[in-house]
């Protein structure tokens, strides 16, 4: 058994269970090293950003048939993208 990896996964799950509870609830998820987990947005922050994007899209809607696109060029851990992409017709993550 790879003990350092196992310990990293336990610590990662512990951090994710507080910061990303939806993600932590999925079996088989491999957690990254400590730094990306510390630097990523929390689930709650990402959900707030998604609600804000949804509200802004609704305010700016000129035509209900016009597709709304999201392009995330930040290339971070993807937490914000995973929630914000749900309110867009098309989403691209770089």
UniProtKB/TrEMBL annotation:
<keyword id="KW-0489">Methyltransferase</keyword>
<dbReference type="GO" id="GO:0032259">
    <property type="term" value="P:methylation"/>
</dbReference>
<protein>
    <submittedName>
        <fullName>SAM-dependent methyltransferase</fullName>
    </submittedName>
</protein>
<dbReference type="GO" id="GO:0008168">
    <property type="term" value="F:methyltransferase activity"/>
</dbReference>
<dbReference type="InterPro" id="IPR029063">
    <property type="entry name" value="SAM-dependent_MTases_sf"/>
</dbReference>
<keyword id="KW-0808">Transferase</keyword>
């Amino acid at each position: 058994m790879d003990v350092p990896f196992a310990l990293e996964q336990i610590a990662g799950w512990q951090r994710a269970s507080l910061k990303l509870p939806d993600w932590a609830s999925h079996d088989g998820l491999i957690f990254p090293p400590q730094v990306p987990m510390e630097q990523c947005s929390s689930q709650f922050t990402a959900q707030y950003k998604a609600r804000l994007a949804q509200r802004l899209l609704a305010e700016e809607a000129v035509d209900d048939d016009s597709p709304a696109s999201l392009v995330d060029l930040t290339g971070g851990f993807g937490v914000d993208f995973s929630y914000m992409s749900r309110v867009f017709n098309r989403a691209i993550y770089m």
